[in-house]
Amino acid sequence: MLQYLIWEPDPEIFHIGAFSVRWYGLLFAMGFLIGMQIMSYIFKVERKPVADTDTLLIYMVVSTIVGARFGHFLFYEPEVLINHPLTVITPPFAGLASHGATIGILTALWLYSRRKESIATNQTFLWVTDRIVIVVALAGAFIRMGNFVNSEIIGRPTDLPWGVVFPKADYRDVLGPPELHLVPRHPAQLYEALSCLIIFVVLLWFWNRYKDKTPRGSMLGIFLIWIFTLRFLFEYVKENQVAKEATMALNIGQLLSIPAVLLGIYFLVRSYKHPVVVPKELEDTIGK
Predict the structure, then answer these.
(1) Inside any domain, residue 5
(2) For helices 188-210 and 125-149, angle between their N-to-C axes, nearest 10 degrees
(3) Is Transcription regulation found in the keyword set (predicted)?
């Protein structure tokens, strides 16, 4: 009786000449497109200019890609960044790091909020980040599904009944010759995708209940603690991303997750020490 899945889909949907559309790119784009629909709804409910979501989308797309790309080389392949810096901005754009994306997004939202918090819309850094983490969680689920289609970020061998064989996995420096790939492994991408979906639902419920009464920084704190605590734990069932991690007590993903969790704890504690006071006239209009 077959107790595992052999997973080798074609990552390409179709191509026209040299141009190809891949499942990863489609899922990546869907995360942004659906996410911005959700943000438009949030802006509408909280009486913020919905047109601002167009600007916010540009900030998010650029910061996510640049941050994730630069972060990959900074954290995992610094020698490439030093010796061949143009690799960061040239095809095939292989290698994206979620920790780098997090730094890029937080930086971009700080710049965005500096433009918006001083005017009537009052979109402060913590107001924006508390809401953007809802859609970031959803986008994270889409991206991890894209990793699953690409047979990347694979798990360690397992004898559990939901183990998956990834014949197309390309981790030669880590896994060795191709025959070592053909064993059931943890579908680590699906574990992370599911965890992202769960926190997306939790954060959306949290916002829907409190809206503008949400303690500033609370949702950002919850997001960082949930995502990066689980990321730390999931690393124990994932193969190393680069060979040098084999000699490390904690791999790079785990080391980078620790300050992210601590930052989340800081924002969560801070949020309940500084509760939001909503003027009565504004409270009566929110959600109507």
Answers:
(1) no
(2) 150
(3) no
The residue with tokens 């690393």 is 235
Q: What are the strands, taking DSSP E only, across the chain?
A: 5-6, 12-16, 19-22, 164-165
Q: Could you tell me if residue 1 is inside a domain?
A: no
pLDDT tens string, the chain, 288 residues long: the values are 456 788 889 989 988 887 888 999 999 999 999 999 999 999 999 999 999 999 999 999 999 999 999 898 888 888 888 888 777 776 666 678 899 999 999 999 999 998 876 555 678 999 999 999 999 999 999 999 999 999 989 999 999 999 999 888 876 656 666 666 688 999 999 999 999 999 999 999 999 999 988 999 999 999 999 999 999 999 999 988 888 888 899 999 999 999 999 999 999 999 988 776 554 544 554 544
Instruction: Determine the structural domain holding residue 266 and report its residue range.
Output: 21-240+248-283
Q: How many residues are given for the chain?
A: 288
In a domain, 4, yes or no: no
Task: Provide the whole-model pTM.
Answer: 0.88
Q: Is 145 left (phi over 0), alpha (psi -120 to 50) or beta?
A: alpha
The Cα 94–Cα 92 span in angstroms is 6
- For residues 171 and 181, what is the distance between their CA atoms, to the nearest angstrom? 9
| Cα–Cα distance for residue pair 248/244, rounded to 1 Å | 7
DSSP single-letter state for residue 179: G
User: Would 95 be classed as within a structural domain?
Assistant: yes
CA 131, 132, 137 angle in degrees (round to 5)?
Answer: 110
Residue in 122, 124, 125, 287 with CA at minimum distance from that of residue 207: 287
Which helix or strand (DSSP H or E) is residue 285 part of?
Answer: none
Which residues make up each annotated binding site?
144
Tokens of 184: 């059931």
Biggest CA-to-CA distance, the chain: 68
Tokens coding 27: 């899922």
